[in-house]
What we know:
Strand order of the largest sheet: 1-2
Distance between the termini: 47 Å
Shape: globular
Number of domains: 1
Helix content: over 70%
Amino acid sequence: MRHRLSLGRALWLALGAAYFIIPLVATMEFSLRAGGGRYDFSAYAFILKDPRFRDSFFLSFGLAVETIVVALVLLVPTVYWVHLRMPRLRPVVESISVLPFVVPAIVLVVGLLDLYRGAPEFFIGTPQILVAGYVILALPYIYRALDAGIRAIDIHTLTEAAQSLGAGWTTTLFRVILPNLQAAVLSGAFITLAIVMGEFTLANVLLFNTFSVYINYIGETHATPAAALTLISFAITWVAMLGLLVLGRQLGARQVQIGGAR
Length: 262
């Protein structure tokens, strides 16, 4: 019975792996085609030498970093304070956090343009306006990552211990609570990075050449380079996810929890 169960699990694992690996192998094979039955890396060289690839990638990466910083500055104190002092507001905050799932991105663009009408040109006329939209799109993911991290530690005991030693609210938040949320912060940060790097609607409507817009352009104008760019972006995402796993395990192993009754 154990042998049959193990064989069945192995079969399902192989089918799941094939479901993901076969399309990647087919995409790689197509990206290497050079005509006449030859294969080379000319499509990858075309992408990596294209200055628009570098410009769009670094633009999206910079916007992702800004989005992460703004979202964490807004949400870390909010989640901490709601859990510590206002637990009755948690259902309200959770309801607000899922609103980006119901509001289409195209509606969000119209709302942002109307909200920031008359804003300074350095903001509304530059890609920085995208950060406002990206923070909203990343809200459900960062909030839930921080919420799970807060629930995993005893914030009441940690706060009381810090304040009994003379720490103020700022010191307690940044030197006691935040170090215990490093894994949750990293989780939300990497998810936000993936969202910003792949977001298309906001950037396309507002006419900014981000990484996703560049991917769409290559897909419409080139064949094998489009497949190569798909694999490159896939590799970037996987490197980010692997970094999340490694850092999350290291930080989780070093995380300190003070036990006690709530």
